Amino acid sequence: MIEASVSKALTQWERDFLGRGSVEVKTDILRNMIVVLLKGVMTPAEKLLSKEKDSMLSIKKIRSDMIEAGLPELKSMIHESTSFQVVSFHTDISTKTGERLMVFMLDGNLEESLTSKN
Fold first, then answer.
1. What residue ranges do the domains of the chain occupy?
2. What are phi and psi for residue 33, nearest 5 degrees?
3. pTM listed for this prediction
4. Where would you tag: which of 51, 60, 79, 95 has the fewest CB atoms within 10 A of its CB?
5. pLDDT tens by residue, 67-112
6. Per-residue CA distances from 54 to 37, 57, 68, 115 (Å)
7. Burial level of 88, CB count in 10 A (0-12/13-18/19+)?
8. Average pLDDT of the chain, as a whole number
9. Are the C-beta atoms of 80 and 102 separated by less than 8 Å?
């Protein structure tokens, strides 16, 4: 249920903050991590430009900077969904597949807290 909540909130955040959402989002909880795979995040223009190395690196940098600019909102969103604080955040985009991977490191073991409640 938390995975679905994070996926939905992240998709809405993308639409509101970045101007468009991904095509597909999959969220998994693993120990103290929330791992999110977003598919279809690149625009057609970015896909075309990414065929050249310099442009590919520029796309990665700009996309990373955009995500970092919205990081306070992302951290708040994760806290609201999990009651855990985000202690670190990692992300990268594949210019070959158009997928983005986000990893939120939490201040506690979310997976363990969920299994102990059942």
1. 2-117
2. -125, 145
3. 0.91
4. 51
5. 999 999 999 999 999 999 999 999 999 988 999 999 999 999 999 9
6. 25, 5, 21, 46
7. exposed
8. 93
9. no
Which residue bears the tokens 């998709």? 11
Task: Indicate the fold that domain 2-117 takes in CATH.
Answer: Threonyl-tRNA Synthetase; Chain A, domain 2 (3.30.980)
Q: Rounded distance, CA 77 to CA 81, Å?
A: 6
The pLDDT tens digits for 31-58 are 999 999 999 999 889 889 888 888 889 9
- pLDDT confidence tier of residue 21, bands split at 50, 70 and 90: confident
Beta bridge partners of 13: none
Strands (E), 1-118: 24-30, 33-39, 86-94, 99-106
